[in-house]
Amino acid sequence: MSETSSGSRTLEVSLGSRSYPIHIGPGLLGQPDALAPWLAGRQVMIVTNEVVAPLYLERCRASLPEGVEVRELVLPDGEATKTLASVERIWDALLEAGFNRRCTLVALGGGVIGDMVGFAAACYQRGVAFIQVPTTLLSQVDSSVGGKTGVNHPLGKNMIGAFWQPRAVLIDTETLASLPPRELSAGLAEVIKYGLIRDVDFLAWLEREMAALRDLAPEAMARAIERSCAIKAEIVAEDETEQGVRALLNLGHTFGHAIEAHQGYGVWLHGEAVGAGMLMAAELSARLGWLGAAEVARARAIIEAAGLPLAAPADMSVEDFLARMRLDKKNIDSRLRLVLLRSLGDACVHDETPLELLETLIETFPRVD
Amino acid sequence: MSETSSGSRTLEVSLGSRSYPIHIGPGLLGQPDALAPWLAGRQVMIVTNEVVAPLYLERCRASLPEGVEVRELVLPDGEATKTLASVERIWDALLEAGFNRRCTLVALGGGVIGDMVGFAAACYQRGVAFIQVPTTLLSQVDSSVGGKTGVNHPLGKNMIGAFWQPRAVLIDTETLASLPPRELSAGLAEVIKYGLIRDVDFLAWLEREMAALRDLAPEAMARAIERSCAIKAEIVAEDETEQGVRALLNLGHTFGHAIEAHQGYGVWLHGEAVGAGMLMAAELSARLGWLGAAEVARARAIIEAAGLPLAAPADMSVEDFLARMRLDKKNIDSRLRLVLLRSLGDACVHDETPLELLETLIETFPRVD
Questions:
Q1: d(CA B298, CA B296)
Q2: 3-state secondary structure string, A33-87?
Q3: How many Cα atoms are found within 13 Å in the side-chain-facing hemisphere of A235?
Q4: Interior CA angle at B208 toward B202 and B209, to 5°?
Q5: Is B262 considered catalytic here?
Q6: What is the mean pLDDT of chain A?
Q7: Which overall architecture, per CATH, does domain B2-178 show?
Q8: A119-141: per-residue pLDDT in tens?
Q9: Which residues are noted in the entry as Zn(2+)-binding (chains A, B) (predicted)?
Q10: I need a labelling partner for B307 at 20 to 30 A (CA). Which of A45, A248, B49, B275 fits?
């Protein structure tokens, strides 16, 4: 972590020849040439959505040097658009513009834009450069770090994709001012996750600062983003393609993905589903004898304080959950693998949960009224 | 290169942790457990096409060990099916079967099947294992070696894809017995290419053995495949992602892709377009003063002896060629890069061909009657 006089900070994600920097700070977007060092050539396409474009497209364009050929593509907003068809629109636009393999894609927006643009970059002419400019808390602390790209399939979330690293990530913390409160809460789910899986001190800090974070207090927010990115960068550097430790980042996600898929993508926000899913994982960990009641209560309290749901959708049966969870990418052969908590701040991957215990947990977990 | 008592040979493609073997020999397909060492887990999907399935699907299945879950997917035949829609059919089938990230795809067929299945494997759950079982000469000497995968787009060939290496390549030379003569010639185009770009001794050997190769003489064919794979493996090991020397493998392809795209994929076979394209590259090299008339005559003679076209489609204008060539993946910014011949057996990438020279070459190159 290095700090400059302007208050911006730079983290490095260490991945050998694919290493890249994460710049975090207020007002980064719009600084002339902020994007210049990371361009592969002179062809640039900014891809964003209808909500973000009126807010930040102009500033993003202003961060590009003179003399580059800039195209813009504005897609619809929302998780429901995270489909192969949207990625095809990006490929069509690139080909219609005659862009070659030294072009650069800029993903301006939240996680949906980042995942789609990253995947489009991964597969356009077998791989071109891209830069992440995440504008939501969720994408700033999660999806813009680590190189996971992809789209949803009717039968499962993120089922089609690639590992493809950006050239750089530019996090302008001022963009959070335009974020709806519900999306802020969804982002905080992933921030809480880092505390739960790896850093109990950070969790304690979050318990103290949660009100400030929901008020967008600049110092607290910058620190939360930095620590989240640092933990994620550390884990990704250890395990780029999710053979081992990286799976811990999926705490709450196996349950959460089942909720999202069952409800139809975009009905629950990803972070909302992960919030409820983390609580399910904590309660299952308690049933395995790993967490005590006080620890589960702490997990529940911080999830609640972030404004996240503490219950699953009313109409989801045990079988609705299990059918979706059996498709999870972490599973090996037909064995269900779950990320659970040995204690607060210490997660593990577990594939020996008795099915009965899991069924009882899902059965008895509260449902939304 | 190692040789076993059964007459089969094994080459290694050296790519660090992504290294893999190429096994070449008669009757490899159908040997029990021939595929066993390369499976990632217990879920296997064999993807093939309607022409290959009746010939080799049974033998391929017999090469898998007992106890694995085997699914089969039979796609239509032909370059025209090399689309994202076909790859989506593979993804749909994998998800419907509940296959996880430790599954293995087996590509049984020609280059179209190999490219599509490789791309499907590259992007299914962000990457799963696959094995190439090429059954055409073209795919045995070219597309199954080197990890280029992908599909065509209406605006360009192989525009969408990924670099993704197979776990192994199994070349059963007996499968060539069922190959139509036109496809055999198309495969010989790539064999000739290796001689032209890298090995003038191999070119001379091909001049002597061309009749035997067109008669499928087993010894000559085995040697031609081995030498071709060895040259390609050597070049790929030097430059996996085509930053430099690998571009030489595109001799004749910039012209050839323009022909294929203009005619509509599948009208000319890939190898036929490359055959004419190599002659165009040789003649352009002569106009640059690099090749003499005798060398161009040798190139023309071997291309003709292989049964390949010596003329471009009748209706293709200079602009038809140039418009397609400007989209070529080798281009940097707007600069046209061509693979040309300094001499027979010595290719180079050249981006300073005067446009006028190129236009005259295309203008005066013979057209099909």
A1: 5
A2: CCCHHHCCCCEEEEEEECCCHHHHHHHHHHCCCCCCEEEEEEECCCHHHCCHHHH
A3: 24
A4: 85
A5: no
A6: 93
A7: 3-Layer(aba) Sandwich (3.40)
A8: 999 999 999 999 999 999 999 99
A9: 190, 253, 270
A10: B49
Residues of B in contact with A100 (CB under 8 A): 327-329, 331-334
Entry field: residues in chain A: 369
CB contact under 8 A, B100 and A126: no
CB-based contact, B331 to chain A, within 8 Å: yes
Query: Is residue B193 among the annotated active site residues?
Result: no
Query: Token pair for residue A146?
Result: 């680590």
Does B307 reach chain A within 8 Å, measured CB to CB?
A: no
Chain B residues lying within 8 Å of A84, measured CB to CB: 84, 88
Tell me the CATH architecture of domain A2-177: 3-Layer(aba) Sandwich (3.40)
Residues 6+ apart with CB under 8 A from B249: B146, B193, B197, B232, B235
Q: Is B112 annotated as a binding residue?
A: yes
- Catalytic residue among B167, B257, B262, B298, which? B257
Task: Indicate where chain B has its CATH 3.40.50.1970 domain(s).
Answer: 2-178
Residues of chain A with CATH 3.40.50.1970: 2-177
> Measuring CA to CA, how many Å separate A129 from each of A39, A107, A121?
7, 11, 6
Q: Please, which residues 254-293 of chain A have a Cβ atom closer than 8 Å to chain B? A: none
B121, B164 contact by CB (below 8 A)? yes
Q: Which amino acid is at B156?
A: G
Q: Is 60 exceeded by the pLDDT of residue B2?
A: no
Q: Chain A: residue nearest B41 by CA? A: A333
Which CATH class, in words, describes the domain spanning A181-364?
mainly alpha
Q: In which band, very low, low, confident or very high, does the pLDDT at B5 lie, cut at 50, 70 and 90?
A: very low
A124 closest CB neighbour out of B84, B160, B334: B160
ipTM: 0.85
The beta-strand segments (E) located in chain A are 2-3, 9-13, 20-25, 43-49, 69-75, 104-109, 129-134, 148-153, 156-163, 168-172, 338-343, 346-350
Is the CB of B367 inside 8 Å of chain A's CB atoms? Answer: no
Q: Is B77 annotated for ligand binding?
A: yes
Q: In this structure, are strands A69-75 and A43-49 parallel, antiparallel, or unpaired?
A: parallel
- Looking at residue B349, its amino acid is V
- Does residue B100 register a pLDDT over 70? yes
pLDDT at B39: 97
Distances (CA, A) of B7 to B4, B12, B25, B119, B205: 6, 17, 6, 32, 21
Substitution target from A18, A68, A69, A100 for chain B, most B beta carbons within 10 A? A100
Query: What are the angstrom distances between the C-alpha of A64 and each of A13, A21, A44, A75, A106?
Result: 23, 18, 9, 21, 10
Confidence of residue A5 (pLDDT cuts 50, 70, 90): very low
Q: How far is CA A315 from CA A157, A264, A267, A272, A369, in A?
A: 20, 13, 14, 16, 10
| Mean pLDDT of all residues belonging to chain B | 93
Q: Please report residues of A whose CB lies closer than 8 A to that of B96.
A: 155
A322 touches chain B (CB under 8 A): no
List the 145-164 stretch of B: residues with Cβ below 8 A of A: 148-150, 153, 155-156, 158-163
Two structure tokens written together for B98: 């509940």
Nearest CB to B84; choose among A88, A100, A163: A88
Residues of chain B with Cβ-Cβ distance to A87 below 8 Å are none
Pinpoint the residues of chain B covered by CATH 1.20.1090.10: 181-364
User: Which chain A residues are within 8 Å of B148, Cβ to Cβ?
Assistant: 126
Place of tokens 């790993």: A290
Please name the member of A41, A91, A122 whose beta carbon is closest to the beta carbon of B333: A41
